[in-house]
Design a protein that fits this description.
By secondary structure, the protein is mainly α. The protein has ten helices and no strands. Helix 2 packs parallel to helix 10 (244-264) and helix 4 (115-144) packs antiparallel against helix 5. The protein starts with a helix and ends with a helix.
C-alpha cells in the first residue's frame, strides 16, 4: 500500500508538472511568432529563481537533515551528491547533441538530427533532475508518513509546474516560427515534459533500493538543477545591455519558491 500511495502521489505531482509544460506549449495556438525578448528574459529568470530556491529548501536542507538523522556528517552527502549531480549533467551535455532554446548553434557531438529534435533533447535533458526531485520528495513523504514532508513535495511540484509553463512555450514557439504546424509544434513542446513523470515515478519504483542513499540523491538532484540554472537560465535571462529585468525575475522566482516551501512545507 505504501508503494502504491507513493506512486500515486508521484504520478499526480509529476503529472501536474507535465500538464503545465503542455499548457505552455499550447501558447503556440495563440501566438505565431516568438515571445518578446522581455517576456523571454522574465520567464527564464523566474524559472532560475524557482530552481535555486527549490535546490536549497526542498533538496539540500532535507538531504542534510536526513544525513544527520542517519548519524552521518551532514555536509558529506550534501556536498558529494551535489558534485555528482553537476558532473552528471555536464557529462550528458557533452555526450548528447542538443540545442538550447534561443540558441542557433547546437551543442554536444555533431549529428544529423533536425533542429526540432535537438531542441526537444535539450529541454528533455533538463527535465530529468526536476522529475527526480519531485519523485524523491514523495518517496521521503511516503516512507516517513510526515505531513510536513508531503507538503514540501507538493510545494516543489507546484513550483516546478509554474516554471514549466514558459519552458513548454520555449520549445513550441520556435518550432512554429520555423514552419511547423501549430499542432506538431504543440506536441513537441508538450512531450518535452514527459521526462518528469517518467523519472519521478521511476524513482518511486526503486525506492526500496535507494533509501540508504536518499541524502546523496536529494543533493544529486540539487546539483543537477543548479547546473541547468547556471549553465543556461541565468546567462540567457541577462542577455542585452540592461540586466535589471533578468535579475529581478530571478529574485521573484526565488521568493515565490521560498514562500511556497516555507508555507506548505
Amino acid at each position: 500500500m505504501e508503494l502504491f500511495q507513493m506512486m500515486s502521489w508521484a504520478a499526480m505531482g509529476t503529472g501536474f508538472t507535465f500538464l503545465m509544460t503542455a499548457l505552455g506549449a499550447a501558447s503556440v495556438f495563440l501566438f505565431r511568432k516568438q515571445v518578446s525578448e522581455l517576456a523571454h528574459r522574465l520567464s527564464l529568470g523566474l524559472a532560475a529563481g524557482i530552481m535555486i530556491a527549490a535546490s536549497v529548501w526542498s533538496l539540500l536542507i532535507p538531504a542534510m537533515e536526513a544525513a544527520e538523522a542517519a548519524g552521518t556528517a551532514s555536509w558529506l552527502p550534501a556536498a558529494g551528491g551535489f558534485l555528482f549531480g553537476v558532473l552528471f549533467l555536464l557529462l550528458l551535455d557533452e555526450l548528447l547533441p542538443h540545442l538550447h532554446p534561443g540558441s542557433k548553434d547546437p551543442e554536444g557531438p555533431k549529428s544529423g538530427l533536425s533542429r526540432a529534435s535537438l531542441l526537444f533533447l535539450a529541454v528533455t535533458l533538463h527535465n530529468i533532475p526536476e522529475g527526480m526531485s519531485v519523485g524523491l520528495l514523495f518517496v521521503v513523504a511516503g516512507q516517513t508518513g510526515d505531513p510536513v514532508a508531503l507538503s514540501a513535495a507538493l510545494a516543489l511540484a507546484l513550483g516546478m509546474g509554474i516554471q514549466n509553463v514558459p519552458e513548454g512555450a520555449s520549445v513550441s514557439l520556435p518550432l512554429r516560427q520555423e514552419g511547423y504546424t501549430a499542432r506538431r509544434a504543440f506536441v513537441f513542446g508538450a512531450l518535452s515534459g514527459l521526462a518528469e513523470p517518467v523519472f519521478g515515478i521511476g524513482v518511486v519504483l526503486v525506492a526500496a533500493w535507494i533509501t540508504p542513499f536518499m541524502p546523496w540523491l536529494l543533493a544529486f538532484s540539487a546539483g543537477a538543477m543548479m547546473y541547468v540554472v547556471v549553465e543556461e537560465l541565468i546567462p540567457e535571462a541577462h542577455l542585452g545591455e540592461h540586466s535589471n529585468v533578468g535579475t529581478l525575475s530571478v529574485m521573484a522566482g526565488f521568493l515565490i519558491m521560498m514562500v511556497l516551501d516555507c508555507a506548505l512545507g
